[in-house]
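Reproducibility note. Readers wishing to regenerate the assembly model reported in the main text can use the exact inputs given here. Chain order matters: entities are listed in the order in which they were concatenated for prediction.
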Amino acid sequence: MAVYTEVTDEALVAHLRQYTLGELHSFKGIAEGVENSNYLLTTDTGNYILTLYEKRVDARDLPFFLGLMEHLHAKGIVCPQPVKMQSGEMIGELAGRPAAIITFLEGYSVRRPQPSHCHELGGALARFHIAGEGFSIRRKNALDMDGWRPLFEMSQARADEVTPGLSEMIAKELDYLESNWPAELPSGVIHADLFTDNVFFLKDRLSGIIDFYFACNDLLAYDLAICLNAWCFEPNLSFNTTKARAMLQGYTAVRGLSESEFERLPVLARGSALRFLLTRLYDWLNVPPGALVTPKNPGEYIARLKFHQGIDNAALYGLDREMAGLKA
Amino acid sequence: MAVYTEVTDEALVAHLRQYTLGELHSFKGIAEGVENSNYLLTTDTGNYILTLYEKRVDARDLPFFLGLMEHLHAKGIVCPQPVKMQSGEMIGELAGRPAAIITFLEGYSVRRPQPSHCHELGGALARFHIAGEGFSIRRKNALDMDGWRPLFEMSQARADEVTPGLSEMIAKELDYLESNWPAELPSGVIHADLFTDNVFFLKDRLSGIIDFYFACNDLLAYDLAICLNAWCFEPNLSFNTTKARAMLQGYTAVRGLSESEFERLPVLARGSALRFLLTRLYDWLNVPPGALVTPKNPGEYIARLKFHQGIDNAALYGLDREMAGLKA
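Running the prediction on these inputs yields the following structure tokens for the assembly.
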């Protein structure tokens, strides 16, 4: 939500000479994303986002992230497109950071999505999953089940500062998930962070998806479970089945779920809730000096996890097999 | 340099119904200004800046600030123009804050101004001073000489934490300025904060002036002295007489200086250096919890003040009477 690295006009103008975007008209640091520094640029040829990758992003992953945007865009997914330098490269260096310029996407994120937004999101997610097929670079999910236990160990000793008993709750959940994780489900490229901030709408139609910096190869239905967590809980943390049904209908109208994917949604939702609980817990306990971002309270994801622990059947989310295109 | 108040899409869309700007296309928080929250909006009719006024701005001053932009714009000064609501009002309320929408200005600020930029700036400042004539609202400078001593008293006990002897240096300087301040010089509307961040250029021509939230009625030549401090020192804090001469030539080509204004430039420059030293000192010693802005080091203004203390004649800035349009 802030700019970490300042870019001077001189450095930017020199940097732009590597592109064919014409003269710079304006540039402003924007409060978007928590990982990187972003600037909105206007040049002779239009609006762009300049991103400087800060240390939380591994520069070795940039060919995956930027290549994925290019691949998806070519497949008709509305997402930012990396702008190439005259050399053909997509990644340059500015102010001592790896830097890329991507096209500007119209639209804005919806703070309180309605069922119609969830329906749109479901369809877009399924198109994203299909479009990801054939993308040649692979990236392991750094925050998949293998990553949860080491992440937990970094917070374990202090987890009860957030809520008494949290450490034990997470330890048990990890044991459960390690024994029950459905690794055999269909996999492919997932977005892995499709929160409402990363989806733009215009006049209630989904106008694009942004922020691919957690994208990776993992179970497709896990991405859907992330969205159930991110889009279908109300501010009071009650689960809105109308939204969940709308999302699933939107998704399955484009990509059908297998029997196993449908049946394993509850455990995938538990895993997704734990994944965000663990990162929020770590960030909550480890606010760096000079942080420009207020950490998000992990409590919201404790509540989500507890909710999913009580669900052993996707029907309890209000989802039914017929709606998912499966035999009754 | 950050957004203090979050605006939701729902609240913004509802707010925009009071205007005739059409549908919202996008909005992004921008890292501009240290006092307020700013968003860049795009609507059917173009680009705008939405400002939410945070508590450091007194809402009673808004009619002055916004009225001044409107007045200056009508007089041909390139600056943002407040957009009126259908009711004719310029100030609304959004997210519990007074809020205004102003037009978007092309161009970007120059981190390291060259003499040509200083010449442009001088001319724009003189046009600003002339255009301010006839503006009917008045605003006392809250940070004029009357405000310096109370401000100093809030930091006096801890000033030596910054540099030993600083407290005594400031006390003596205040005594000197209170005895020597040239209150009889021509006065009018001044910008009072025309640092490089607040001046936009396009292809090395000045394209506009922004951020009128320190504007007030005060001595016109004091505004020029502020610019000498803000634009004519090198990063190593040496004074660049070529830049000062260029600025003065730009200024006097539009508005001639009186004998007294020219002669009193050194004391005005001391006062200006002290004013920014005092606010930076206060901010340095009083970083609020959760601050999103790193305070600027007051040391730079100690060096400027010391420099001006050694100047008793504007000629020592490299300025000469003839250049200023005065008799030799």
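We highlight two features of this model. The radius of gyration of chain A is 20 Å. The mean pLDDT of chain A is 94.
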